[in-house]
Amino acid sequence: MIEYRSVSKEFPDGTRAVDDFSLILPSHETTVFLGSSGCGKTTLLRMVNRMVDPTAGSVLIDDEDVAKSAPVELRRRIGYVMQNAGLLPHRTVARNIATVPLLTGASKAEARERALELMDVVGLDRSMADRYPSQLSGGQQQRVGVARALAPNPNILLMDEPFGAVDPIVRRELQREVIRLRERFGTTIVFVTHDVDEAFALGHRVVILERGGRVAQLGTPDEIMGDPANDFVASFIGADRADRELRLEETPDGTLVVDGRGRPLGRLDGTGAGR
Ligand SMILES: Nc1ncnc2c1ncn2[C@@H]1O[C@H](COP(=O)(O)OP(=O)(O)OP(=O)(O)O)[C@@H](O)[C@H]1O
């Protein structure tokens, strides 16, 4: 269980990114922070592994204040996946995944074996183990990022817009992968996104945030969709919905993916996707 207790964050330049935020995130569930740019999602997420320390209040994991743990220790036991994967370019896929096991004393052989197992878990072919990140597609790099985050067997996985840079088809595959992972390992996931569909696809509970980390609504996707708390929530979850609804169209050249307004996004073989 992760608990935010009256947490605020004011940056040195006076920006108040989070203002008196309190919330309990149950174990083994996926909680999604959803909101538009600048509402404090990333700041809240980073407080869990002390990449950001609150200026007031506290964050607790299983009733223990994270301020009592050294940041390095927290970051080794809490998985963190960010946009663009953040891989080390001069290390192979296997070495990237094995980063934490190697730091915490695994032998090279053990770490490599663990990396290969995790490649299976995230759906990457083992033949890619000795490639460098630049030799992978964006979606494959994100899978490596997820595998690396899983390497220490974390109870908690923090995911900060992890699939923001991949095309809609790969994004859906990766979302399905996240659902499989949490079912398999029971991981507590905190997921940040500004994509409404992604939030509703992944979140057991979704927290819709306004500026300053103010909670506009908290609930299951069904609760929020069925009964938006106010006009802000209604317009946020309704905005451009048609843009995001994807469907498949058969054409003489193959299967085309189009959005709700009929605009082509790409082909199912992966060519030309993305906007
Ligand atoms: N190091 C910093 N110094 C000053 N202000 C910051 C710093 N980091 C974030 N902020 C500000 O705090 C607010 C919240 O930022 P945060 O990154 O948490 O938002 P976000 O909801 O994750 O946005 P995005 O979706 O754009 O990443 C913003 O106004 C941002 O400019």
UniProtKB/TrEMBL annotation:
Family: Belongs to the ABC transporter superfamily.
Enzyme class: translocase
An example molecular function term from Gene Ontology annotations: ATP hydrolysis activity
E.C. designation(s): 7.6.2.9
Keyword field: ATP-binding, Nucleotide-binding, Transport
Domain ABC transporter: 2-237
Protein name listed in UniProt: ABC-type quaternary amine transporter
Record's keyword annotation contains ATP-binding: yes
InterPro entries: AAA+_ATPase, ABC_transporter-like_ATP-bd, ABC_transporter-like_CS, P-loop_NTPase
Pfam families: ABC_tran
Superkingdom as given in the UniProt entry: Bacteria
